Hints:
The chain is α+β, with helices and mostly antiparallel strands and about 80 residues long. It has helices at about 5, 30-40, and strands spanning about 40-50, 50, 65-70, 70-79. Strands 2-1-3-4 form a four-stranded mixed beta sheet, with helices on one face. The two termini are about 25 Å apart. The mean pLDDT is about 85.
Amino acid sequence: MSSIDSFFPPSIDIKTEEFNLDKVKNQEKSEAVKYLEQFKMTYRILKEDDKMHISTRDYRLDRLNLTIQNGIVISATYG
C-alpha cells in the first residue's frame, strides 16, 4: 500500500447517488442529523451559535462540517 492509499479511507458504504447536500442546509439541526444518519454520513459541528468547537484539520470525504445558528444548519461542507 502506498502512502497516498493510506490517506484515503477504505471504500465507504454511502448511497451517493441519492444523497443531496442541499437537503441538509436550512434544516433544523435534528432533521439534518436524521437525514445524515439515513445515509450513514458522519458529521461534526464546527460552530453552533457563537460557540466554536475544536476540530482537526484532516479532510474526509465521508464527513460533513456543519455550522448551526439558532437551531438551523446554515452551512454544510465536506471535510
